[in-house]
Design a protein that fits this description.
The complex is a heterodimer of chains A (176) and B (563). With 176 residues, chain A is an alpha+beta fold. Chain A has five helices and nine strands; from the N terminus they run E-H-E-E-H-E-E-H-E-E-H-E-E-H. Chain B has 563 residues and is α/β, with parallel strands linked by helices. Chain B is built from 21 helices and 18 strands. In chain B, helix 2 links the parallel strand 1 and strand 2. Classes of the chains: A alpha+beta (176), B alpha/beta (563). Chains A and B meet through helix 1, helix 2 and strand 4 of A and loops of B.
């Protein structure tokens, strides 16, 4: 068996310590959380978290079941089982040494549809959104110029609409 | 009404009549309210014992056990008890005091992060910050503890919340959108299970701790199908050991017949168990030819260790009657012939070539009570001997720390069991090592004059550790010797006000055991037993069930045995 990367969405009740419970579970099973994002959902009191973890399928199935056992966890989805969209956001500060550099950096940024959010004489800060591959490609490109610092949000994910028909139908029924 | 009174009222509402606990600064308001409450409080001498007593109270009665402790050291002392209850799926509600909310996080006197510390050893826990939440939190705690797969729940109650004026209502709704245990087994899966059981030629049923709530259903299923029944350490009593269909305990120190049956069977019906490593040994050699049907209320246990071919998530009380109805008596005469042959070949046996051995003391206790009492054990050799030689006949009467293997469990567990089943004799079988881990509870036994007979099988060493060192560490006995500094246990018992006896040989043992049991009052009997006795059969850790060392269970006349 080989380890594969899994993107998991965990819907939780917004209670103190809920993240510790989830993180503790991953830690006890020896999983490294590669990325984690947490934020409120459209339901008050409910948060949606996205984890990226690597592990063997059988062990991840066990983690999923153990997560489901946590009282404050409402739903666990392993996106690897269906099609999903994922994005992350990065803020990256790139050193600008020469005017030529500036032109080149801005050109590359344009190709990546990165937005300039801060301009200084010796540095530019970009906001980049996209999937993991795009983030990594942009980082590679900027490395030659000199990355001063960067921060990534970690991935967030949603199932594609076609794989989530039930939910869609429920919302449409409510609206009608 | 203050928060502390609201807590006690909420507990009363949930039928709590006894609490095991120890007071301290941060839980003083609760103890003040207790003064006027109808709830009986049993003062233990160490908080760990309170948790074990509450745990055993549940195991013996089926009603949630409750314990109290103060903040900081009081609460951290509960941790072993909570972990024990968690591993053996025991419904406990623990209430701890904590420092006032404005002091939390300031390293205040007797402050510990109890919410953080107890998270991994409880089914769920709460830190209550608003006094109005108390009734809902208590209701949720009891619901979570007792339903689905039972487990401990801790409620951490800061002192100012206990002291705050309560204006809320006790008419509360529980609000747990993420908690919906599956009780009813999926009909399709039940049908599949019935199909594979029907076709089996060499089936066995393995009943675990889940069977304690479903003893009648287990017995009805076994009676109709004629299936052989193995009961794990946690399942003892769920199916009576004396029945002809009983094969005894499986695993590391299980019976030869049970382990052979596992190796040779073509179907295992696992009912309310989690295939612990002490039961399976090396997984790849566990029941290699078997189709595995696994019924459990906890979906996370299905295929966690042993791959289930037919999983059924649900309560045994729902699933087993459906299977019983779907099946006819199984045509497994040939299988039974084989099993009976093994049973005949490997009865329980031990040598009596010493003045006194552990096994015969346990047999004496078993004979004197007819197995019709509550047994609690500590952890070690005596625990395994007890499981095999003193299996009780009713559910909820064999109380032992199986999963966590907690030395120090047996004596406080006997206290909890005595409160849970008033009027019944409780026999606490202990070793001279483990009894000392909560020996202070002799005071609690004395105070309440509980009908507990403590039998110490005193071999002067940590026997199970000694056995492993003898067998697997070339007799390099390391830190196991107790005899040179053991107290005189009889005198110690007497100092606590109990009847205390020292017994050195089988004649005295045979005379004393029935006498002490007939008295129905607290007593401690210290039996000096053979030091080097070993528990056999034994499957070495990590070995396969088929690699059992039979030891002194070897038949006297070497028979032809299939591998």
């Amino acid at each position: 068996m080989s380890a594969t990367k899994h993107v998991m969405s965990v819907t939780v009740r917004d209670r103190p310590g809920v993240l510790v419970r989830i993180a503790g579970l991953f830690a006890r099973r020896g999983f490294n959380i590669e990325s984690l994002s947490v934020a409120q959902s459209d339901d008050p009191g409910i948060s949606r978290t996205t984890f990226v973890v690597t592990g063997e399928d059988a062990t991840l199935e066990q983690v999923q079941k153990q997560l489901q056992k946590l009282i404050d966890v409402i739903k666990v989805i392993d996106h690897s089982e269906a099609k999903f969209i994922d994005r992350e956001l990065m803020l990256i500060k790139v050193a600008v040494r020469t005017p030529d550099d500036r032109v080149e950096i801005r050109q590359i940024a344009q190709d990546f549809r990165a937005r300039i959010v801060d301009v200084a004489r010796h540095a530019l800060v970009f906001e980049v959104t996209g999937d993991e591959g795009k983030m990594n490609a942009f980082i590679t490109q900027m490395r030659d110029f000199g990355i001063v610092e960067l921060i990534r949000t970690g991935r967030v994910a949603l199932p594609r609409s076609e794989t989530d028909k039930e939910r869609l139908a429920a919302v449409q029924a409510r609206a009608a | 009404m203050k928060g502390a009174e609201a807590l006690l009222k909420a507990l009363e509402q949930h039928g709590v009549d006894v609490v095991f606990g120890h007071p301290g600064g941060a839980i003083l308001p609760v103890y003040d309210a207790l003064y006027d409450s109808p709830i009986k409080h049993v003062l233990v001498r160490h908080e760990q014992a309170g948790a074990h007593a509450a745990d055993a109270y549940y195991r013996a009665s089926g009603n949630v056990g409750v314990c109290f402790a103060t903040s900081g050291p009081g609460a951290t002392n509960l941790v072993t008890g909570l972990a024990t209850a968690q591993m053996d799926s025991s419904a406990v509600v623990a209430v701890t005091g904590n420092v006032a909310t404005n002091l939390i996080g300031t390293d205040a006197f007797q402050e510990a992060d109890v919410y953080g510390i107890t998270g991994p050893v409880t089914k769920h826990n709460y830190l209550v910050k608003d006094v109005a939440d108390i009734p809902r939190v208590v209701a949720e705690a009891f619901h979570i503890a007792a339903t689905g797969r039972p487990g401990p729940v801790l409620i951490d109650l800061p002192k100012d919340v206990q002291q705050a004026e309560f204006h809320g209502t006790f008419d509360v709704d529980i609000d747990l959108p993420g908690y919906r245990p599956t009780i009813v087994g999926n009909a399709k899966q039940v049908r599949k299970a019935a199909d594979v059981i029907r076709k089996a030629e060499r089936p066995v049923m393995m009943v675990g701790g889940g069977g304690q709530v479903a003893s009648a259903e287990v017995m009805a299923f076994a009676a109709k199908t004629g299936i052989p029944v193995i009961t794990t350490l946690m399942g003892i009593g769920a199916y009576p050991a004396g029945e002809p269909q009983a094969l005894g305990m499986p695993g590391m120190h299980g019976t030869v017949t049970a382990n052979r049956a596992i190796t040779h069977c073509d179907l295992i019906l696992g009912a309310g168990l989690r295939f612990d490593d002490r039961v399976t040994g090396k997984i790849s050699r566990f029941a290699p030819d078997a189709t595995v049907v696994h019924i459990d209320i906890d979906p996370a246990e299905i295929s966690k260790l042993v791959k289930a071919h037919v999983p059924v998530v649900g309560d045994l009380r729902d699933v087993l009657p459906k299977l019983t109805a779907a099946l006819e008596p199984l045509a497994i005469d040939a299988w039974w012939e084989q099993l009976d042959e093994w049973k005949g070949m490997y009865p329980e046996r031990f040598k009596r070539d010493q003045p006194l051995v552990s096994q015969e003391v346990i047999q004496l206790l078993h004979e004197a009570t007819g197995g019709d009492c509550v047994v609690t054990t500590e952890v070690g050799q005596h625990q395994m001997f007890s499981a095999r030689l003193f299996p009780t006949t009713r559910p909820r009467t064999f109380i032992t720390s199986g999963g966590l293997g907690t030395m120090g469990f047996g004596l406080p567990a006997a206290i909890g069991a005595a409160f849970a089943r008033p009027g019944e004799t409780v026999v606490c079988i202990a070793g001279d090592g483990s009894i000392q881990m909560n020996i202070q509870e002799l005071a609690t036994v004395y105070k309440h004059q509980l009908p507990i007979v403590i039998a110490i099988l005193n071999n002067g060493v940590l026997g199970m550790v000694r056995q492993w060192q003898e067998m697997f560490s070339a007799k390099r006995y390391s830190e196991i010797y107790l005899a040179d500094s053991n107290p005189d246990f009889a005198k110690l018992a007497q100092a606590y006000g109990l009847d205390g006896y020292n017994v050195f040989d089988r004649e005295a043992a045979a005379k004393l055991v029935p006498e002490v049991l007939a008295k129905g009052k607290p007593a401690l009997v210290n039996f000096f037993v053979y030091e080097a006795e070993k528990v056999f059969p034994m499957i070495p850790a990590g070995a396969g069930v088929d690699e059992m060392i039979v030891g002194d269970q070897e038949p006297e006349n070497e028979p032809e045995v299939p591998a």
